[in-house]
């Protein structure tokens, strides 16, 4: 068993856009409330109807999404912040055109309760592993590259979570998360972390290093089995399996 606390909570209102850090969040059958509850839909002929991601267009990271009310369970639509600093309401009739112009492709907006990309799961990362990765690469490794929901400081060794399998539990107050169900467990990374958090420059060595040294794993995909609200600084306990 390992103990520690919640170092940060990260919510991404629109899939593949930059997100926000919050002081508290609701965790339940949706995963993290308000996380990835909106998306941009590609309208190019060869990809019509598919969700846009950083893999197709890293410029998505030049836009940020937040909620005006950063409460634990946001009920309102997000606000987008463009590269020029202009703020756009999700229901602004000019938003889709502004995004299409910025990203140089036709698109539409989609709102959906719950997550768009990982299903009702939560991505958990550990500070010891991020710091160790930084040491291994002898360069800063920004946490936002990995787009976690729950970031923990635990007394577990760096990269211990790479071997945490089905049945692993993390308890934060009344909330219990478990490695259970399809696609849960150590997170196999795509190319997205190789882009800096603003999508300006790619660092291929990061992805290569993860593949060669860590079986391309970073973080832990979990599901909420007991719901509740988690706040930054809350005590956390991990029981690996």
- Structural class determined from secondary elements: mainly beta
| Arithmetic mean of pLDDT | 95
Low-confidence stretches: none
Radius of gyration: 18 Å
Order of helices and strands: EEEEEEEEHEEHEEEEHEEE
- Give the biggest beta sheet: 7 strands, mixed, barrel
**Secondary structure: number of strands:** 17
Strand content: 25-35%
The rounded distance between the terminal residues' Cα atoms is 10 Å
Overall 3D shape: globular
**Spatial ordering of strands, largest sheet:** 1-11-10-15-13-12-17
Helix content: 10-25%
Alpha plus pi helix count:
3
Concise structural overview:
The protein has 241 residues and is mainly beta.
Notable traits:
mainly beta; 17 strands; 241 residues; 3-stranded antiparallel sheet; MoCF_Sase_C; 33% strand; 3 helices
Task: Kindly describe this structure.
This protein has three helices and 17 strands. It is globular, with a radius of gyration of 18 Å. The strands form four sheets. The protein has a seven-stranded mixed barrel. Strands 4-3-16 form a three-stranded antiparallel sheet, with no helix packed on it. The chain has a three-stranded antiparallel sheet with strand order 6-7-8, with no helix packed on it. The mean pLDDT is 95. It is mainly beta and 241 residues long.
